[in-house]
Design brief:
The protein has 49 helices and 20 strands. With about 1450 residues, it is an alpha+beta fold.
């Protein structure tokens, strides 16, 4: 080190040789005239020669060392600072020698000014601080503004600044004034040094001197603070030069950015940055007081300030963290707000909470929440007020404002030292002084790492030595207090390492030495023993949310220790150990996200042995080498325990998503294991029957329709035990206008379990199919299912019932659990259904002031959840109590009240309707439709058969509808009845060979011999729930009670009687018995008088005529022949059965609709039964439009495949044209989403579930065959229909607007109609894709090979090709990235401004297995679209749209005939 610089004395005046009084008198006598002449700029200087100036400077040099009791020192400072401006703006008042040689005299002045900064007793006075500040500002102005400074002058200036800083900083400062002066002097030093790097780069020896001197000042807070400030500004400039303008810019305050000269050469910026980086030497030495606090001159005094070293060490690590984040491209705006550390006066800014990945939602509390608010991702900035609780369903979160300012964040100006704002921070020591006080960006979402970021190895080459050493300091120390003092800096270093390794690129390799050191850091940092360091554990968890998602070699071996660490956090309700330095809600969220990435590992790695030893213990227990599967019970316990202890809204929603993921994955894993065991047992000749009693809704089993394969298709319409029209399900299928829901009622032989399908994906990816579930129990999925259902239903009615966001997610998870295939008791399903009903009752019973749109949205969601359970578990409706409870809830939703058992029963037409809202009423009606669909013999939603198929016409025309009678029942159902009985050989319309649920003749109709005798009726029922076709036949006895030997009740047709068939006997016919005359009379017999007693003359004449007529008749009958004609007497026989029936009249009569009351319209209300005039023009077209309206929710999503490095839409669309461009597991994923459907030709029977169909349709395509031109992928169940489109560049209609595509499709349809006699497409490609292209909301599923390419996905370019308008739609993206372990990483990007944006089960950061990927993606798509409908004001439910269309048809085509004309028409042919 240069001793001349470090000596601190500088130039010594000759006056110091004289007594002090002499020097003082000389100085006072000289400086006053000089100062007086300076006040008049026009006065010429008193000094003219070099000797005069030199002598005067000796006097001034001595005057600077005088005490501050007079104004001599002030006058000396004024003179010298004025003369320094000779290099900036020379004046005539300057001495001529100085004007001639300003650089020479400036160098002398700087040497003299060093005397002002020598140690003196008045250093604590404000006057001294003001003088030093004046000198520093003059030097700063000289460096900024002078353009003629020579290299020697620059070097002298830098030496001057080094010397004065050494005088002030080498020893610990104890006063506030000294602290503030230290900050000021260091700021000037660094700014002048940067100016020198731009104009006259310092020599190597000067850099070395500066490094040695700054290393001896590291015990001063000002040194590290100003160094961090300069390094941030230099890094911001370096990033632009190194990575270009597209790299995320490190935004620093304008004052800091101005420190870097704008004219600095680009070649010098990297040199300057690297040399400044190492100015403080090894930063980890700050954690070694003996090294950091010692100087060559004052080691004792320096060691006195070692108590502040932990804080200074933390600040140094914080500065390094800023640079690391900048190089990763994840920097956030530096906020001027700072927060005081607890128990210290040190201000800091830490970005730990920013490292939580954004979920794209600002979470707050519900307006009707009764508990304390729990803040979500919208975290408060430090120093600001906490965020105002808002409702996630209605109010968007805004960042809180800040009011405080940063110390020294503007250019240095003269300040009043008496102001509190200029007071420097004070320091003190504290065991825990690390505080998470990061400041999120305004959008509350932290930007992801830039894809242009540097490699992990490059960053570790720069900072790895410091970070690894800092992360392990005192970690093995036996003195816990000593370790805790340095916890903040160590925690920051551990967090930085976790961030660096978590930002590993997809195809990047990391040196093994770095990985091993990093894993050692993690193993020591996540210990949960008593000696563990809570700040370090918290920092690691906060920054490791993506650690298990980035394919780090060997990282899965850390699974046990991370599981124990997460367990210690999530099961601790209070988190008292962490509250002093981090918000518990943030730490719990980070732990949940880590847990989310650990969920599939036990099942995925299975029997892989985990041998991770660190002193042989974790959490005080011996760690034995065991497999991953053995840790699954503990993982499950942690998840359930976390759900029970969590109170934050967002955290609870993420846990709910994780639970559904775990249950589905476990169920599929165990089902695959059982299937393999059965297969092997069959091969060994010891087959075992499959367990029965499965309580389920189909996840993917029993066919895509989601209906049980054992459901029959026969049913009756309320005719049991009565004579009338017995209706059986005769003609089945699905609505031709909406496409099939899959083969409804399909047999369970062709099952799709999760991702299992044509490509053999039933086993866990990367492992052979499991032969058992060792260590987890064969029924672990069932147990977990029961536990979760009970926990959800219990909390839904207790802790969560006032939290709208959590309840919405819980209802979605409950609906998802209904679709998971597990074998549990049916009582568990009924308990869940009852809990949902009770929750609806609770919501509807809230006081009127609490009713809002958000509340009604939750009620609608609860009704939808109810519908899912009913359709997936229809057997529950066989229990009367369950059915009554559901019907009571429907009554409550429609009428607003529920009839109790003690109340008088009232008919629905007498009940006043007062529902909570129209939306609630519509949701209850949908549930009622659902009950009617699935109860008993109603398993299907609709039929494909219409008038065309029934009468054999090619199109639905006016001629075909004229053969039907059309009636409207209850103003809500249109009945189309065909009265043509089938022929003897056609008991009913035959089914297609592939049609499901085939039934025998007894199920479809009567026996062939009875067909000609029994009239039949075919009815098409169009209602709000869809279109159904039924064949009904007249039966005089219930079909179920008739045996094969029983005869019908129709009398037999006998032959002609034979006259000689038996002996005839003469019979005397008598009116009374023979012994009547022998019976004695009684008085009662005399009560009726004899005829002769009451006969009058008139009556007597009439009797005589009657007697004469009787005698005549007797004579005629006694004669054998009359008029030559023989009379043949035959027995009486009943008339033969008629062959002409008005079956429509009989059907309506048996239903009780042909009464005088049903045809009247009291009070203007439409009658219960009315007829439609099908002869009016446009009737068939309106029926066709009604059939085209969907009867269930129809959604769509688009699937893209993005290869590594692709940036344009054209490249992405070309990927799916060939199977060579995509991997096989992407095609497996497509097969798990749905089944192929031919666009526009959805014929009877729909789509086969044969596993060989998908490969046959796929061919050599990479999925582009499903672009909507010919095929699409479809998934459908009883409530939802999803169309998956895989856009490709080969389909020109893809890029057209909806109007252009519709015109093109209509032309193609006309061409097909003229060339093909087959029925034309009933639905065009435009209809399939209109929901994707024409709607304002889009849902994109993107498969990315490289995770960092997510940021470069050309979303705007792809959407611009599919939009005819310029508005930006609401886009939701699900990115899927395959990992080397066979798992899949999920990145969900939603609309952060949406009311319902945190959608489950796939959340940002999820890791899922191959088995459950398809199921979870479909559930996420369903929930996304469902939430979109909940928040939309214009979206009507499907049954409401159909009801409105039916009302329009009634108003337009209602028959205006009178009542007699109506009855007359029933007896006439249509």
């Amino acid at each position: 080190m240069d001793q001349s610089v470090c000596s601190g004395r500088g130039h010594v005046s000759v006056l110091s040789c004289f007594p002090p009084s002499v020097g003082r008198d000389v100085a006072v006598a000289v400086v006053k005239p000089l100062r007086a002449s300076m006040r008049n700029p026009d006065t010429r200087s008193l000094l003219h020669t070099d000797s005069q100036v030199k002598w005067t400077m000796e006097v001034l040099c001595y005057g600077l060392t005088l005490p501050l009791d007079g104004d001599t020192v002030q006058l000396c400072v004024d003179i010298y600072t004025d003369w320094l401006t000779a290099l900036v703006s020379p004046r005539d008042s300057f001495p001529p020698p100085i004007s001639r040689e300003p650089n020479l005299y400036t160098q002398k002045i700087l040497r003299h000014l060093g005397g002002l900064f020598l140690s003196r007793s008045e250093q604590a006075s404000p006057v001294y601080l003001s003088l030093c500040q004046q000198v520093l500002l003059a030097v700063q102005s000289l460096a900024r503004e002078s353009a003629v400074m020579s290299g020697d002058t620059w070097e002298t200036l830098l030496h001057f600044l080094l010397r004065i800083n050494h005088n002030m900083l080498a020893t610990p400062t104890t006063t506030d004034v000294s602290e503030q002066l230290s900050h000021l002097s260091m700021a000037v030093l660094f700014e002048v040094w940067l100016l020198s790097c731009s104009r006259c780069f310092p020599s190597h020896s000067l850099w070395q001197t500066a490094r040695q001197m700054l290393s001896s000042w590291r015990h001063q807070p000002a040194v590290v603070e100003q160094w961090s400030r300069v390094m941030a500004a230099l890094t911001s400039r370096l990033l632009v030069l190194s990575f270009g303008p597209s790299f995320p810019h490190l935004k620093v305050p304008d004052a800091d950015a101005a420190l870097i000269p704008a004219d600095m050469d680009d070649q010098r910026v990297p040199q300057t940055w690297f040399r400044f980086l190492h100015l403080l030497s090894n930063l980890v030495d700050l954690s070694r007081p003996v090294v950091a606090g010692s100087t060559p001159f004052h080691p004792e005094e320096a060691m006195q300030g070692s108590g502040r070293l932990p804080n200074i060490f933390f600040r140094a690590m914080k500065g390094v963290g800023t640079m690391v984040d900048a190089f990763l491209g994840v920097t956030v705006v530096k906020d001027p707000t700072e927060q005081q550390l607890p128990n210290t006066g040190v201000t800091t800014k830490i970005h730990f909470r920013d490292r939580l990945p954004s979920l794209g939602v600002a979470v707050a509390r519900s307006p009707f929440k009764d508990r304390l608010p729990s803040y979500g991702i919208s975290r408060p900035r430090s120093g600001s007020a906490p965020p105002i609780p808002v409702n996630i369903l209605s109010v968007h979160s805004t960042p809180p404002s800040t009011t405080s300012s940063t110390l020294h964040n503007t250019r240095l100006k003269p300040v009043n030292v008496s102001k509190a704002t200029s007071k420097p921070p004070t320091t003190s020591s504290s065991p825990h002084h690390w505080k998470s006080s990061s400041h999120p960006p305004p959008s509350s979402s932290r930007p992801p790492p830039s894809p242009l970021r540097c490699n992990v190895d490059s960053l570790l080459h720069l900072f790895g030595g410091w970070l690894f050493d800092a992360a392990l300091i005192h970690s093995a120390s036996d003195v816990t207090v000593m370790s805790e003092r340095w916890a903040a800096g160590r925690a920051e270093a551990c967090g930085m390492l976790c961030r660096i390794f978590s930002c590993k690129k997809t195809a990047e390799d990391i040196l093994s030495v770095y990985l091993s050191r990093f894993y050692l850091v993690l193993l020591r940092g996540v210990q949960v023993s008593e000696e563990a360091c809570p700040p370090v554990l918290a920092s690691i968890l906060l920054n490791s949310t993506c650690l298990f998602c980035c394919d780090l070699r060997g990282v899965n071996l850390l699974f046990p220790c991370f599981l124990f660490a997460v367990e210690s956090v999530l099961l601790d309700r209070e988190l008292l150990r962490f509250k002093s330095f981090v918000r518990p809600v943030d730490l719990r969220r980070a732990s949940i996200l880590v847990l989310l990435s650990l969920l599939p590992l036990p099942l995925q790695l299975g029997s892989v042995q985990s041998e991770v030893l660190l002193d042989g213990k974790f959490s005080g227990d011996d760690v034995t080498a065991d497999n991953f599967l053995s840790l699954k019970p503990r993982l499950r316990s942690v998840l359930i325990g976390a759900l029970q202890t969590e109170t934050d809204t967002t955290n609870t929603q993420i846990l709910l998503a994780a639970m559904l993921n775990l249950v589905q994955d476990s169920a599929l894993f165990e089902a695959a294991g059982q299937t393999q065991q059965q297969t092997e047992s069959w091969q060994d000749g010891a087959s075992r029957p499959r367990s029965t009693g499965t309580t389920r809704g189909t996840s993917d089993t029993s066919g895509p329709s989601g209906t049980s394969g054992t459901r029959g298709l026969s049913g009756h319409i309320g005719t049991s035990g009565t004579r009338g029209l017995s209706g059986t399900r005769g003609l089945s299928g699905h609505s031709g206008t909406r496409g099939p829901s899959g083969p409804s009622g399909t047999s369970g032989t062709s099952e799709i379990r999760g991702m299992s399908g044509p490509r053999g994906m039933s086993g866990p990816s990367g492992t052979s199919g499991p032969r058992g579930t060792s260590g987890t129990g064969i029924q672990s999925a069932e147990i977990l299912w029961v536990q979760l259902v009970r926990l959800l239903t219990q909390r839904l009615m207790a802790q969560w019932r006032n939290d709208s966001a959590v309840c919405l997610s819980a209802l979605e998870v409950l609906a998802g659990l209904a679709k998971v295939e597990v074998s549990v008791e049916e009582s568990e399903s009924r308990r869940a259904l009852s809990s949902v009903c009770s929750y609806i009752v609770f919501l509807c019973s809230r006081p009127p002031p609490l009713h809002s749109r958000e509340l009604h949205s939750i009620i609608v969601a609860a009704f939808y959840c109810l519908n899912v359970w009913l359709t997936q578990h229809p057997a529950m409706l066989h229990h009367q109590e369950c059915l009554l409870e559901v019907l009571e809830i429907v009554e409550l939703g429609i009428s607003g009240s529920k009839s109790g058992k003690e109340q008088e029963v009232r008919c629905k037409e007498e009940k006043e309707l007062n529902p909570s809202s129209l939306r609630v009423k519509e949701a209850a009606e949908a549930t009622l439709n659902c009950v009617m669909q699935v109860s008993g013999a109603f398993p299907l939603l609709g039929d494909q058969l219409d008038e065309d198929a029934l009468i054999g016409c090619s199109t639905l025309s006016d001629a075909s509808v004229k053969k039907f009678r059309y009636f409207v029942v209850g103003s809500s159902v249109i009945l189309a009845m065909l009265e043509r009985p089938p022929g003897p050989g056609e008991p009913g319309k035959p089914r297609e060979p592939g049609e499901v649920g085939e039934a025998g003749p007894r199920e479809l109709g009567p026996e062939p011999g009875e067909v000609a005798k029994c009239p039949s009726l075919t009815a098409l029922i169009r209602g709000a729930s869809g279109r159904h076709s039924w064949t009904l036949q007249l039966q005089l006895q219930p079909r179920d009670g008739r045996t094969a030997t029983q005869q019908t009740l129709i009398p037999e047709q006998r032959g002609v009687a034979q006259e000689d068939s038996r002996i005839r006997c003469g019979v005397k016919h008598q009116l009374f018995p023979d012994n009547m005359d022998r019976v004695s009379l009684v008085k009662a017999d005399l009560s009726i008088p004899l005829l002769d007693d009451i006969v009058t003359d008139k009556v007597h004449q009439q009797l005589q005529r009657l007697q004469a007529a009787l005698k005549t008749q007797q004579l005629v009958e006694a004669q054998p022949q009359v008029s030559r004609r023989s009379v043949v007497m035959t027995i009486c026989r009943p008339p033969p059965p008629i062959n002409s029936f008005q079956t429509a009249r009989l059907f309506l009569s048996h239903l009780g609709l042909l009464t005088p009351e049903t045809l009247k319209s009291p009070g203007g209300v439409p009658p219960q039964l009315l007829s439609l005039d099908s002869s009016l023009p446009g009737f068939s077209d309106d029926l066709k439009r009604l059939d085209e309206l969907p009867s269930r929710n129809c959604d769509s999503a688009s699937v893209f495949y993005m290869r590594a490095g692709q940036r344009t839409a054209a490249e992405i669309l070309r990927n799916v044209e060939s199977s060579c461009s995509v991997p096989s597991y992407f095609l497996d994923f497509l097969s798990s989403l749905g089944w192929p459907v031919e666009v526009g030709r959805r014929q009877r029977g729909g789509v086969s579930t044969n596993s060989s169909e998908f490969p046959a349709v796929l061919g050599d395509s990479g999925g582009g065959v499903f672009d909507g031109e010919r095929f699409v992928l479809m998934y459908a169940d009883a409530l939802t229909e999803i169309t998956f489109i895989v856009p490709s560049s080969s389909y020109s209609d893809w890029s057209k607007s909806p109007e252009e595509a519709e015109r093109l499709t209509s032309q193609q349809s006309n061409t097909e109609l003229s060339q093909d006699s087959a029925p034309p497409p009933t639905r065009s490609p435009v209809e399939d894709m209109k929901s994707f292209r024409g709607s304002e909301s889009k849902l994109l599923i993107v498969w990315v090979e490289r995770f960092e390419d997510i940021e470069s996905f050309p979303q705007t370019e792809l959407l611009s090709e599919t939009q005819s308008h310029t508005s930006v739609p609401n886009v939701q993206l699900i990115f899927i990235h395959p990992l080397k372990t066979g798992l899949y990483r999920i990145c969900f990007r939603g609309n952060a401004t949406s009311k319902f944006s945190l959608v489950v089960p796939l959340v940002n950061g999820s890791v899922v297995s191959k088995r459950s990927l398809g199921f979870l993606v479909r559930e996420t798509v369903i929930n996304c679209c469902h939430r979109r409908r909940l928040e939309s004001d214009s979206t009507l439910p499907s049954h409401v749209r159909r009801k409105q269309m039916i009302n329009d048809i009634i108003l337009r085509y209602r028959s205006r005939h009178s009542e007699p004309a109506f009855y007359t028409a029933l007896f006439q042919d249509p």
